[in-house]
């Protein structure tokens, strides 16, 4: 079965495609810049999930019904995978604080990015005519929210975020 997208759906999906591309680029770059190996792993994991989102949206733009199975439904969101939330190893007080501060900036940027990207999915979901497209977008949005939660939990565990 092939998809017949409306002009508005096509426009919104192209926007989401560009958002996913940006997320992939940022997660990959930030994985290289992060000091904490656990944060590097988290960013690499999320980059892979964002690539899957990109591929799914690209499928839809090519008129293909997205196949939401195997790789996408199983743990790519990172929610099911627990990571160690330990404090960074002391490299000397100053070195650890600087690394933590740099990682905190990366996390803040990615948390803001995830909040924005998740919110843009709302409009795209509401404009989706096809139930298959709507379902795929809802799945992607849940994963974006899980990425945000993972970053939030990392930040909270490392003293980078203290909600009042």
Keywords:
mainly alpha; single chain; 5 helices
In a nutshell, what does this entry contain?
72% of the residues lie in helices and 0% in strands. It contains five helices and no strands.
Q: What series of H and E elements makes up the topology?
A: HHHHH
In the predicted model, the low-confidence regions spanning at least 5 consecutive residues are: 70-95
Determine the fraction of residues in helical runs and give it as a percent range.
over 70%
Radius of gyration computed on alpha carbons: 17 Å
Tell me the overall shape: elongated
Strand-pairing-aware structural class: mainly alpha
> How many distinct helices?
5
Strand residue percentage: under 5%
Overall number of strands: 0
Biggest sheet architecture: none
Termini separation: 50 Å
How confident is the prediction overall: mean pLDDT?
A: 85
Write structural notes for this entry:
With 164 residues, the chain is mainly α. It is built from 5 helices and no strands. The longest helix has 35 residues, at 93-127. The radius of gyration is 17 Å and the shape is elongated. The chain starts with 6 loop residues before the first helix and ends in a 7-residue tail after the last helix.
Summarize the SSE layout with pairings.
Layout (H helix, E strand, L loop, with lengths): L6 H27 L3 H25 L8 H4 L19 H35 L3 H27 L7
């Amino acid at each position: 079965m092939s998809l017949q997208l409306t002009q508005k759906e096509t426009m919104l999906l192209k926007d989401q495609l560009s958002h996913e591309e940006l997320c992939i680029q940022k997660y990959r770059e930030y994985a290289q810049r992060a000091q904490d190996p656990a944060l590097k792993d988290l960013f690499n994991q999320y980059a892979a999930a964002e690539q899957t989102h990109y591929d799914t949206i690209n499928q839809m733009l090519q008129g293909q019904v997205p196949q939401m199975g195997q790789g996408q439904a199983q743990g790519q969101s990172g929610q099911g995978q627990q990571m160690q939330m330990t404090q960074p190893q002391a490299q000397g007080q100053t070195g650890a604080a600087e690394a933590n501060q740099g990682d905190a900036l990366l996390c803040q940027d990615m948390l803001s990015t995830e909040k924005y990207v998740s919110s843009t999915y709302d409009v795209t979901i509401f404009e989706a005519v096809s139930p298959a497209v709507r379902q795929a977008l809802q799945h992607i949005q849940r994963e974006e929210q899980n990425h945000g939660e993972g970053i939030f939990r990392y930040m909270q565990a490392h003293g980078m975020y203290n909600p009042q």
